[in-house]
Amino acid sequence: MVKRRYFLLGLTSLLAMTLPSVAIAQNQNSVELTLAGYAVAKPVFARLIPEFQKEWKAKTGQTVTFKESYGASNAQTRAILAGLEADVLAQNLQTNITPLVEKGLVKPDWDKRLPNKAIPAYTVMVQVVRPGNPKKISSWQDLTRDDVSIIAINPKTSGNARWGVLAGYGPIWKSDGEQKAKEYLNQFVKNTRTLVNSGREATDAFIKNRIGDVLITFESEIIFTNEVFPRDFPYIASSPNIQVDFPVTVIDSVVDKRGTRKVAEAFTQFLFAPKAQEIYAQLGYRPVNKDVAKKYAKQYQQVNKLYTIADFGGWSQVNQKLFADGALFDVAQQLATGR
């Protein structure tokens, strides 16, 4: 009997060492998730995470803690490829998830596992101007005037930047043809006074350091900024505009390795719940929940014509045309510098 008891104890210990980590993680009283997000995502997740933690604790009794990493969107993808074990990735470009799929870190069906192609919220691109709008900026075309100095973000590092370039280039391309769109892009780049690496750096350069006449960024970013800073900065959401998507996914290779799939997937699902949608709206994003969107409709500027990335052939085509090495953005930079 004693021998049998010791045998069972030994077997239990052996199983504890050899069972998949998911079984162990689900029996723990606490679990830790690592969230990687685009640079300006921190304020919204600062509100979303505590609400999820409360709900998960009440539902399961398990305490969830988070490690958070925010930075330029392309850099976050590169960090995960280099070994950052993020359980959840919040992006501002679908194509920043594509390399993770190609390397087998994220399953190909990532955008079918959640509602709305895994996009819980969106925004539009805007031109933030100085109080009183002294340069009288009202359209994308105004950014090509010789007297306008632009704060923009580097599209080599930032999804925010790619959306910002496409927001002006794309509608002109659609309405007036490729040559006019190229002329717009060349002058836009020429007028760019500062090219920073992330949306947060761009906001700081424009508002804190008072550089430039106009800042190109997300509407959600300036709505939040105007809540934080004592002095409001007006902005123009020019029409036509573009719908900026914020997809989310779990990193399959990480959640399976760490045994965190259940809670990580629950967190991404929570982002579509009414409570989370309210938080997105309160932080300036446009929620995908129709009831919540209607409730907060007055805080957004009306855009009469809203393109999607699909209207321009998808990000693969846009990146090839505009942002690949030697593509139109590089050409515009060469013209601007005379090299």
Outline the structure in words:
With 339 residues, the protein is α/β, with parallel strands linked by helices. The chain folds into 2 domains: 148 residues, 3-Layer(aba) Sandwich (D-Maltodextrin-Binding Protein, domain 2), CATH 3.40.190.10; 148 residues, D-Maltodextrin-Binding Protein, domain 2. Helix 3 runs antiparallel to helix 13 and helix 7 runs antiparallel to helix 8. The longest helix is centred in the N-terminal third of the chain and has 19 residues. The chain starts with a helix and ends with a helix.
Count all strands and give the number. Answer: 14
CATH level 3 topology of the largest domain? D-Maltodextrin-Binding Protein, domain 2
Major β-sheet profile = 5 strands, mixed
Second CATH tier, the architecture of the largest domain: 3-Layer(aba) Sandwich
How many structural domains does the protein architecture include?
2
Q: Quote the distance from N terminus to C terminus.
A: 86 Å
Strand residues, percent: 15-25%
Q: Order of strands across the biggest sheet?
A: 7-6-8-5-9
The CATH class name of the largest domain reads Alpha Beta
Mean pLDDT: 90
Share of helix, binned: 40-55%
The total of helices stands at: 16
